[in-house]
């Protein structure tokens, strides 16, 4: 650091390699920061400060373990997006001499007396802190931080609002499609191309279907239903035996639901199927997954035979059997109780006596 810079910023400083840019007529800087200084660099707002005076949402501690474990479980290929911070204090950018005074590359110096407040990334910051406790060697790795000058931190609340109000989370289907770390998700993506009724009929990006789409199912609907069939939570490895059983389940379901066979033979359109029947909706897929799980546990050697009686079920949306259970005045219900009640309905149609655990749902209507 030059003597002039020392006099401008002070002797106690943080220094980072950085890029200078202009946004809304103001300078900002993108700096490369070692992970080990991130917990020391940024402050959190006190939980006791009322929301109208805070610049961040309250930290949700429940999110931290998953983020921390993500870093620790993927030390060779984890990825975090930039943190965004306001700086209330002395900040100086020195372009590299060869680039001249207007150079965009250089060193950013921030006085240690400055107040630095995260506007975006507080959960990532806390997860980094917790991960470093278990794996200090990660401290030499880098994360990019976008620094904005904000005297008195007067702009920090508006910056938080601007950064978050237009953010759009990816859909659940898209997360499943792109999650190559989760073996279950990737198996379901692979599996849908091997089940005839799913081929080219699954919406891979959206979680709902438009009225005119030629798709019949959603990827998240099939994934959730498959989890219910297996009786597991997403993220667990599945065996080759389980994979074979999942494929058998959907093939058996497809064979025994008449309307799915009509789709295969192009005797009914996806629009007609969704309009007139319940068997193309995600909640019914979840119901079928629950039914399959019950049968698999009760009749491990005969569950496929039991599913053959699905051919006799009236899947019409206007069937009174669904009213108040999976359908309310013609509209599909989307709550968990509706799934459980419709599961009971189908089990009874298949000649299965409801046990005490399943009968409890009937008293919750």
Written overview of the protein:
Residues 1-9 and 46-53 have low confidence and may be disordered. Strands 4-5-1-2-7-3-6 form a seven-stranded mixed β-sheet. The protein is elongated and about 80 Å long. The protein is built from 15 helices and eleven strands. The chain is α+β, with helices and mostly antiparallel strands. It has two domains: 3-165, no CATH class; 172-364, no CATH class. It has helices at residues 3-9, 38-41, 64-73, 122-134, 156-165, 172-178, 183-191, 219-230, 240-256, 258-264, 270-276, 282-298, 303-307, 336-349, 356-359; strands spanning 13-23, 26-34, 83-88, 91-95, 105-111, 115-120, 142-149, 202-203, 217-218, 327-328, 331-332. The termini are far apart. Strand 1 (13-23) and strand 2 (26-34) form a beta hairpin. Helix 6 (172-178) packs across helix 8.
Spatial ordering of strands, largest sheet: 4-5-1-2-7-3-6
**Low-pLDDT stretches:** 1-9, 46-53
How many domain modules?
2
Major sheet? 7 strands, mixed
Structural class comes to: alpha+beta
Using the alpha-carbon principal axes, give the shape.
Answer: elongated
Strand content: 15-25%
Q: Total helix count?
A: 15
User: What radius of gyration results from the CA coordinates?
Assistant: 28 Å
Count of distinct strands: 11
């Amino acid at each position: 650091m030059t003597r002039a810079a020392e006099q401008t910023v002070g002797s106690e400083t943080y220094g980072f390699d950085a890029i200078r840019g202009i946004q809304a007529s103001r300078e900002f800087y993108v700096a490369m920061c070692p992970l080990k200084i991130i917990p020391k660099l940024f402050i959190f707002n006190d939980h006791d400060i009322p929301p109208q005076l805070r610049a961040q949402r309250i930290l949700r501690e429940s999110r931290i373990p998953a983020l921390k474990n993500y870093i620790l479980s993927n030390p060779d290929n984890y990825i975090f997006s930039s943190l965004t911070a306001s700086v209330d204090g002395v900040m100086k950018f020195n372009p590299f001499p060869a680039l001249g005074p207007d150079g965009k590359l250089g060193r950013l110096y921030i006085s240690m007396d400055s107040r630095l407040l995260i506007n975006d990334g507080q959960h990532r910051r806390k997860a980094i802190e917790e991960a470093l406790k278990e794996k200090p060697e990660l401290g030499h790795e880098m994360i990019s931080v976008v620094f904005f000058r904000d005297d008195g931190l007067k702009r920090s609340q508006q910056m938080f609002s601007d950064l978050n109000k237009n953010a759009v989370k990816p859909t659940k289907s898209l997360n499943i499609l792109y999650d190559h770390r989760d073996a279950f998700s990737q198996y379901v993506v692979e599996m849908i191309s091997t089940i005839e009724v799913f081929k080219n009929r699954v919406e891979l990006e959206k979680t709902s279907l438009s009225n005119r789409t030629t798709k019949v199912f959603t990827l998240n609907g099939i994934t959730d239903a498959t989890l219910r069939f297996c009786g597991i939570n997403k993220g667990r490895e599945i065996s080759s035996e389980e994979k074979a059983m999942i494929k058998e389940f959907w093939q058996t379901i497809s064979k025994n639901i008449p309307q799915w066979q009509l789709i295969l033979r192009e005797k009914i359109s996806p629009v007609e199927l969704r309009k007139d029947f319940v068997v193309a909706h995600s909640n019914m897929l979840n119901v079928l997954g629950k039914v399959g799980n019950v049968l698999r546990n009760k009749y491990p050697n005969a569950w496929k035979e039991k599913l053959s009686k699905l051919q006799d079920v009236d899947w019409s949306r206007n069937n009174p059997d669904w009213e108040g259970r999976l359908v309310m005045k013609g509209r599909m219900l989307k709550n968990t109780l509706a799934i459980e009640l419709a599961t009971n309905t189908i089990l009874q149609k298949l000649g299965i006596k409801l046990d005490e655990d399943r009968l409890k749902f009937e008293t919750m209507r």
